[in-house]
Amino acid sequence: MLRVFWCVLLRDLTLALRRRTDVLTTLFFFIIVVSLFPLGVGTERQVLQILGPGVVWVAALLASMLALERLFAADYEDGTLEQMVLTAQPLSLLVLAKITAHWLLTGLPLVLIAPLVGMQYHLSNDAIVTMMAALLLGTPVLSLIGAIGAALTLGLRGGGILLSLLILPLYIPVLVYGAGAVTASGIDMADTRPYLALLGAFLVAALTFAPLASSAALKISIE
Amino acid sequence: MASNWFRFAAPASFYPIAGRLIPVFWILTGVCLLVGLYWGFFQTPDQLGGSNAQKEYYRIIFIHVPSAWMSMWLYVVMVGWAAIGLVFNTRLSFMMANAIAPTGAIFTFLALWTGAFWGRPSWGTYWDWDPRLTTELILFFMYIGYIALHSAIDDTRRADRAAALLAIVGLVMVPLIFWSVNCPDPNQCAALHQRSDLTQIEGNILFSMLAVTFGFWMYSFATVLMRLRSIILTREADNTWVRDLLVGGHRA
């Protein structure tokens, strides 16, 4: 079982690294969106410190969603996905491997680039550490929930727009608590642990149910 | 008789029944709404209004609360039909879920809309990012997402199943809305909505609220069945019974 997981994971990673622009596009999209806000709302230090957490999270949602369309699309077009559905292996495990690959390529870079963004928004060191922790817990949830939407909209006309309509409402809890954690870290008295604990709970719940739901969605889309 | 129930799972046999039920539900809708609104407007004057004329606007409650209830109930009912459809593969239950979605979306919109008009005099703002308002808005998006996904897929079978799965995933929102006001620590999340408790509502107000709610249920039945009938006709257009129906005039 674990071997199948590794196999699919490594395959997806190798494929993605052969076409590095796809991965970099998402990352640069994130950086550009984050950089646009100070130009739009003004560059005062205090304003940026207030806006920072929210902007980072909204940009992370959009960046994660941008890459979701490709999660199953390539495999769907060349027929690999059908073969995966037909194998004796549990489909949800294969889907989980693909989601993991997706997160490693789009979510993890966002976590790693977070200090740079924190600098742009004059966030304190504490806030940056919290932001990295929150992104580390939150971005996998985005990939997991997003996979359901990606599977449902597979091969549809205007699938990308539809995907955002379906998935963004479900992202809201992650956005609220993810940005909440960073905001709370700026206040001396506040405790960020409840926020992180809730994000962890989202992650556990999403890990349990999302692969099942997305494999069911894939079966619907393929049959 | 017992096995006869399953006969109505076939669109062809459900279609005439629905046609006969619709007028009944419309009449009940009219009666309940008239009674509920009359009672609400004229028989509950002294609770919050009376000498304090500012508070008369609380009567929005008779539309606002029932429509908010309906928005959540209809989502649960829709998910129920969607789940039945996924499990038993019955065509009619998908059609039912499909027919419920627009009515549910309308009630969600009505709850948000009346809430805005209530919020203006009582909170001083049309909109606030109160947890309940926000979650209700997300519910509205879920309805829109369901309808959008269904209409984006051409293959009816895939559309039914995909939208059903999406609806089931969105079910997580309903408990969130329901308990969103029960905030354990008011310092952590300030909710403008008060905690609600049916046992603490004055009898007359409760009566008219429940009467309007019942009226809304009847309205939902009527509109859902009407929509269901047209969905059945569209999807079964190639079947002989539909052609017979058209040839024989609009009997049913």
TrEMBL record, chain A:
Keyword tags: Cell inner membrane, Cell membrane, Cytochrome c-type biogenesis, Membrane, Transmembrane, Transmembrane helix, Transport
GO biological process: cytochrome c biosynthetic process; cytochrome complex assembly
Listed transmembrane segments: 21-41, 47-72, 93-116, 128-154, 161-183, 195-218
Signal peptide (from-to): none
Keyword Transmembrane helix: yes
GO molecular function, one term: heme transmembrane transporter activity
Subcellular location: Cell inner membrane
Any one GO cellular component localisation term in the record: plasma membrane
Superkingdom of origin organism: Bacteria
Topology versus the membrane: Multi-pass membrane protein
Role: Required for the export of heme to the periplasm for the biogenesis of c-type cytochromes.
Family: Belongs to the CcmB/CycW/HelB family.
Name assigned to this protein: Heme exporter protein B
Lineage: Bacteria, Pseudomonadati, Pseudomonadota, Gammaproteobacteria, Chromatiales
From TrEMBL, chain B:
Residues that span the membrane, as ranges: 21-41, 61-88, 100-119, 131-149, 161-181, 205-225
Gene Ontology biological process terms from the UniProt entry: cytochrome complex assembly
Pfam family, one: Cytochrom_C_asm
Span of domain Cytochrome c assembly protein: 22-183
Membrane-topology annotation of the record: Multi-pass membrane protein
GO cellular component: a single term: plasma membrane
GO molecular function: heme binding; heme transmembrane transporter activity
Domain of life: Bacteria
Localization (cell): Membrane
Record key words, sorted: Cytochrome c-type biogenesis, Membrane, Transmembrane, Transmembrane helix
Claim: Transmembrane helix is one of the keywords in the record: yes
Family: Belongs to the CcmC/CycZ/HelC family.
Function field: Required for the export of heme to the periplasm for the biogenesis of c-type cytochromes.
Protein name (database record): Heme exporter protein C
Organism from which the protein derives: Thiocapsa rosea
Phylogenetic classification of the source organism: Bacteria, Pseudomonadati, Pseudomonadota, Gammaproteobacteria, Chromatiales
